[in-house]
Amino acid sequence: MNFPVTRQAAAYSLATSLALAFVSPSFAQTLDADTVVVTAKRMPQRAADLIADTTVIHADEIARSGAGSVADVLQRQRGIEISRNGSAGASTSVFLRGANSNAVVVLLDGVRIGSATSGVAAWNAIPLGAIERIEVVYGPLSTLYGADAIGGVIQIFTRKGDGAPVVTGSAGAGSNATRQLDAGVHGSADALRYALSAGHEESDGFSATRPGAFGFNPDEDGYRRRSANGRLSYTVAPGTEVGAQFLHSDLRAQYDSGSAAYDVHNKQDLDTAAVYASSQLGANWRSTLQYARSNDKLGSFTSAAASGASQIDTRQDEFTWQNTIALGLDTLQLLASRREEDVESSSTADLSRSRSTNSYAAAYSATRGSHLFDASARHDRSSVYGSKNTGAAGYGYHFGNGLRATASVGTSFRAPTFNELYFPNYGLPSNRPEKGRNQEAGLRYDAGSVQLDATWYRNRLTDMIVSSTPCPGRVGSCAYNVNEAKLEGFTVAAQTRLAGIKLRGSLDWQDPTDETTGRQLARRAKKHASFQADSSWGQVKAGAELQLSGERFDDAANRNRLGGYGLLNLYTSWQFTREVSLLLRLNNAADKQYELARNYGTSGRTWFAALRYDTR
């Protein structure tokens, strides 16, 4: 796909697209004013009362995505790009508003996940079938979530129990010998709420690499993912609830390393668990205590010999005390937390370390007629990189008739990973956190049948950690605080209904630039878009999706170009009975050849069919 490349052409395209967006289909969602969002303020809030730029991906959208991964669903949202080294089971990166994949906080039911060595969440290990909805909050949220929330926060919610018992299940199959099976039950009985589900998915996949790639092997590289998760809560007394939750996922994914004599693969285990108690201490005061643990265990097996195996395990423990106090129409939040990170490495002793961070934060939200205000501040103190202070403030105004304007500023930071601090011949213990300073403004319109969301942002990053030569006090290169970057862009999303067809659309213009070198940040396009149209005829629903991306570069030097691409996906569902439905999906219908990472394979035309059962 060829996007305009000059500033004049981009400006003209931007102006015309604002008008066209009302009749453009898209997979990205604008928010209904009554949608309740949790992540943006760490408490339930109506979308109409939010200043932060937010997207919610609902259960029906996740269900019709077919077999694949969470990253496949996210890739179709505004402001999000992905990179992947092969099939849905391969190592995956998610870029939010052009920010690095390690500059995005990822939560599973409020539990922070990710590797302390790479700083990236195990996207390939998250089971898609367990998810009820996903909330994406764009922009810096370090005042609420601490380190790494430069590009934003993505929170994944699994199903929770409420009301009469509901039984769900699905069985599916598709291209590349893909097989998928999951089942679950959730509901409530008096004071008890419960939810439990399990799933299994596997695929023979395709070759992870292309001819000419280092380690190329033309064999198929498949994956197998098994998972189980559950949530249980009990209302001890009016206003007081205690609960527990867990998620376990184990992934076995093949990849290429040049060996045809051994089944080269990774084994990744993702585990989260949490217990909490929440109580209404007064008419206007709710207090919540939570202890959470997440484990990210990655083993790589390159040969049958013991020397061909390596293991890196990350454990995160976090204790959080959150107090939410209503002051008339205003809300005050006070937060205290302690997070401990621990890494054990079988092959690199220097990485087997730990660090702790103590945090204190306050946030204030106010409403005065048509005016919305919020402000927040946070202090983080790490045992490794010292103290960091962050702050944010926002303002919104309701003009009436569904039109609202917002503006905000905020600071953020990313903590150096254990690799950037301690990996032999690469890390430097003196590395400092990266710093971000963001400005943004938005315009939102919701007239029921027509919705529009337009946002401009500029995030300036300093002390960026990159692989730099020369390296202070060392021969060769190393991870070092040397660069500055600018993440600037404009996003527009819209939806409407025309002649019985629901149309949605989003377009992103962005300039993710390394200001030290003047080059485009790797694997991020300057323009990308997503569109969707669907309609229903009785019990049958059908739709089409179009994903578009401009050219990118695979390297920081901008020498290796990744071409732009367009992907057309088609789907239909048939509701046989109230409980039983059939999903048919055709991805990459035009069989487009493209790359998300240089010399790594991507899927051609594929199909998937699933029979679903849901008693709700």
TrEMBL record:
Protein's cellular compartments: Cell outer membrane
Pfam families registered for this protein in UniProt: Plug (PF07715), TonB_dep_Rec_b-barrel (PF00593)
InterPro entries, per the entry: Beta-barrel_TonB, Beta-barrel_TonB_sf, Plug_dom, Plug_dom_sf, TonB-dep_rcpt-like, TonB_box_CS
CDD domains attached to this UniProt entry: ligand_gated_channel
Family assignment from sequence similarity: Belongs to the TonB-dependent receptor family.
N-terminal signal peptide: 1-28
Protein name, per record: TonB-dependent receptor
Keyword Signal: yes
Membrane association type: Multi-pass membrane protein
TonB-dependent receptor plug domain segment(s): 49-153
Cited Gene3D superfamilies: TonB-dependent receptor, beta-barrel domain, TonB-dependent receptor, plug domain
UniProtKB keywords: Cell outer membrane, Ion transport, Membrane, Receptor, Signal, TonB box, Transmembrane, Transmembrane beta strand, Transport
TonB-dependent receptor-like beta-barrel domain location: 207-588
Motif TonB box positions after renumbering to this chain: 35-41
